[in-house]
Amino acid sequence: MKADLSTPKIDRGLDDIYVKETSICFIDGQRGRLVYRGYDIRELAEYSTFEETVFLLLQGHLPNSAELEKAKADLAASRTLPPSVLKLLRTMPEHAPPMDVLRTAVSYMSGFDPERDDSTRAANLRKALRLTAQLATVVATYERIRKGQRVLRPDPRLGHAEDFLRMITGKRPDPARARMMDVALVLYADHGMNASTFGATVAASTLADLYSTVVGAIATLKGPLHGGAIEAALNMIETIGKPDLAENFVLNTLRNKEKVYGFGHRVYKTYDPRALIMKDYARKLAQMQGDDTYFRIAATIEDTVVRELASKRVFPNVDFYSGLVFHGLGIPTDLFTPVFALSRISGWTAHVIEYWEDNRLLRPLDWYVGPRDLAYVPLDERA
Ligand SMILES: CC(C)(COP(=O)(O)OP(=O)(O)OC[C@H]1O[C@@H](n2cnc3c(N)ncnc32)[C@H](O)[C@@H]1OP(=O)(O)O)[C@@H](O)C(=O)NCCC(=O)NCCS
After folding, report:
1. What is the pLDDT of residue 4?
2. Which of 56, 178, 278, 376 could form a disulfide with 162 if both were Cys (CB 3.0 to 4.6 A apart)?
3. What pLDDT digit, counting tens, does each position of 239-273 carry?
4. What is the pLDDT of residue 320?
5. Residues tagged active-site
6. pLDDT of residue 5
7. Whose CA is nearest to atom 34 of ligand 1?
8. Region 51-57: what's the mean pLDDT?
9. Cβ(192)–Cβ(22) under 8 Å?
10. Which of 14, 17, 225 is the best mutation target for the ligand 1 pocket, counting ligand atoms within 8 Å of the beta carbon and taking the most?
C-alpha cells in the first residue's frame, strides 16, 4: 500500500518509547548491566534472598534485620491458600495449561481479599506481599493435584524458594539446590518495562485494582516471545538430544529464518548478566547430576548463535540456561513460565504501585488505513 503523505511515524513495538520515570530497575543493554533500586544484580545474586529482594523492590531500600524478619514472617504466613482456592484448583479442566490456571486463580483469589478495593499505597503493598506469597503455592499445589499427588501445605519455617521446591517435588531440597532456586527468583524478580509489566501498567492506568493488573501481566507473560521462551529453549535442547547435532540444528533454524529461543533481547545487545549466572548454575547442576549432555548441547547452541549472529548482536538471554536449571531442580517444563510469574509478581506490583503515584491513562493511537466512504449494502444485496 502506498504511504499516505500525512502518515505519522508509527512506533511498531514501542521500541524507544519511555512511558514513565522509575527508581525500581535500571538496565544498561549495551554494557549488560541490571540494577534493582541501585544494587547490581550480580551482588544481589551473591548476597541477597528472594524475600529481601521483594522488600527492596516494593519498599525501595534494603531492609534492616527487623524489617527483613517481618517481611519473611508476613510472606510465610500468607503462603497458605484459602480452602475455596484449593477447591478451584481441584476443579480446573483436565490438562489446563498451568499459566491459565495461575491467571484464573489470581482472578478468583481477588474475591477473598478484604482489601481488594482499598487503593491506598499501604493496602496495595500488603496485597502485593500476599500475592507474592500465594502465587508459589498456587503453582505447587496445582502441580500436585494434576499428578494425583497429596497436596503439601506450606511450611512457614522454610524460606520461600526452598518451600516452593519442597511443595513441588515432595522432598526438601539440599541447601545448594534451595539456593539456586532462591537466586533464580531474585534474577527474575524485575526487568523494567518489559511486555508483562507494561500489560500490568496499562490495566493500572485505568485505576483497575491490583489483582486485575496482575491478571493482565500473567496473560501477557504467557507468549513464547516473552515468558514462554524458557520452555521453548529447553524443548529445543531436548529435541536436539546430542551435542554433535546442536551446531547443524542452529544453522538450519537460522537458514529457515526461525528464531532460536532463549537468544536475543529488545534491550540487551550484549550478554544478559542473568544468563551468565544461570549458565554457571546449569554447569554446576550438570556436575551434581553426573550428566552434562544437555549442558554441552546448550553450550554448542550458544557458541553457534553468538558466532553466526554476532553482527546482529544476538546473545543468550536469561531464559536460555534457566530451562536447564529449572529442569535440573525437578520442575516440569510447563511450569517454567509460572515460575517466572511467581518471581516477577514482585516487580509487576512494585511498578504498578509506583505508576499510581503519578497516574495517567495509557491511551496510544493507531493510524487508520482502511476505507472511509463505503456505501452500506443491505444484506440481501451482498454477494
Ligand atoms: C526477544 C526478541 C523478540 C527481541 O526481538 P527484537 O528486539 O525485535 O529483535 P530484532 O528483530 O531487532 O533482532 C535483530 C535481528 O536479529 C534476529 N534475531 C533476534 N533474535 C533472534 C533469535 N533468537 N534467533 C534468530 N534470530 C534472531 C532478528 O531476526 C533480526 O534479524 P533481521 O535484522 O535480519 O530481521 C527476539 O530476539 C526473539 O524473538 N527471541 C527469541 C525469543 C526469546 O528468547 N524471548 C525471550 C526474551 S527475554
Report:
1. 57
2. 178
3. 999 999 999 999 999 999 999 999 999 889 999 99
4. 95
5. 226, 265, 319
6. 61
7. 312
8. 98
9. yes
10. 225
- Contact by Cβ (8 Å): 74, 228: no
Is pLDDT above 60 for 64?
yes
Residue with the three cell numbers 490456571: 101
By the 8 A CB rule, do 325 and 278 touch?
yes
Look at residue 134 in the predicted model and tell me its pLDDT: 97
Q: Of all protein residues, whose CA lies closest to atom 18 belonging to ligand 1?
A: 264
Q: Measuring CA to CA, which residue among 35, 138, 37 is closest to residue 85? A: 138
Assigned CATH class of 23-224+333-356: mainly alpha
The span from the CA of 314 to the CA of 254, in Å, is 12
CA–centroid distance, 162 to ligand 1, in Å, is 34
- Domain segments of the chain as ranges: 23-224+333-356, 229-328
- For atom 1 of ligand 1, the residue with the nearest CA is 265
346-372 pLDDT tens trace: 999 999 999 999 999 999 999 999 999
Average pLDDT of the residues of the chain: 96
Specify the amino acid at residue 301: I
> Which three cell numbers, joined as nine digits, stand for 58?
516494593
Nearest to 139 by CA among 147, 183, 212, 261: 147
Please state the atom number of ligand 1 nearest to the C-alpha of residue 264. 37
Instruction: Give the fold, CATH level 3, of 229-328.
Output: Cytochrome p450-Terp; domain 2 (1.10.230)
pLDDT number for residue 228: 87
Mutational pocket test of ligand 1: of 30, 249, 265, 302, the residue with most ligand atoms within 8 Å of the beta carbon: 265
CA–CA gap between residue 380 and residue 186 (Å, rounded): 62
- Contact residues of ligand 1, CB 6 A cut-off: 225, 229, 259-266, 309, 312, 314, 317, 319
Q: What pTM was estimated for this model as a whole? A: 0.94
